[in-house]
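$ fold --in a.seq
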Amino acid sequence: MGSFLAAAVASGLSSDEVYEIIYDTDAAISESSLFGPQAVLSLFSLRRPMGLVLVDKLAEVIRPINKLYGEVMLSDVPKPLAIPAVDIISNQLIIFSNQPEFFRSVYKNAKFYEKDIPLVKACLASSAYPIILSPVKIDDYQLVDGGLMMNSPAALFSKEKVEYVVAARIPMLEKTAPLNKRLDIALRSIQIMVKNQEETLSDNIDLNYFLDVKLPGTFEFGDSKPIVQAGKEYVKNHPLDTTDIFEEIAPKTEASEKEDSSSSVEITIEKPATIKEQIVGFWNRLKNKI
């Protein structure tokens, strides 16, 4: 999601236009049932897919929504943009950027991709969450979610070009109960790894804004509006004071980095189960027994 949001903002879209793309994308994925029963059926496929959902199928679903998902090239984006992905063959961070002079490679073996590619392809590569989405093939690279090595891209900004770096973070771990499903164990392991490296790479951040908004599951779709509304409510009640941000960044304190858990926004979405949801529930129960 981060790479798509960054691409939309760097393309010069207004907040209303970004919201519209979010809603339309969420609705299209939800209606496609890509992450529903057919994803479970892929477990039994003889073609042995590299993810529950093929990235090419996801691209087909979102392509009609907006031109950003279609003909726009990375070089067409007017504002500086950097999108990280990880090559699981070479263990390298591959950075797609239209203006690489504004960024730094961070890791010794990281590389800036030198060719121009469709913007959506870079975003999909950065979004290819292991196990869930299949890797994206670009040249000799087999690319997966950039979050495996750099979940907070704030570390990419070059302080020689950028005066201040402000980051927004949300909780990474969604559940704390014991796990008993193989897929959940694998996903939780990835989340723990991502959370730890995110804290390690935070030295490049001048101001870290922590949004303690409790989100639904990572790959649950169809509820973007209440999620966005919960984010708006949280920011309204916990405004970020940017008055003197270009003059002085206040020293970070332990108290400012952690919000009181009682002030967090809990998203509760209750609605009657449709026939489609009942079928999906049946397949989920079947998946739990695998």
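$ fold --in b.seq
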Amino acid sequence: MKIFVILSFNGDEMENVFVGENEEKALSLKPADFENCEALFVEIWEDGEKTDDYRLEE
């Protein structure tokens, strides 16, 4: 099972804004969906290990 963690970055601050199994929803998020968000990054976890991470583009 894959878990998607979406991280919102604003300067030096980071916040988890989504954690779940819904890939379509996770990858559809945009920085504009969140207040004071400069960038969104996704981490993909499988079986308790991070398998991938990258920046989500607008």
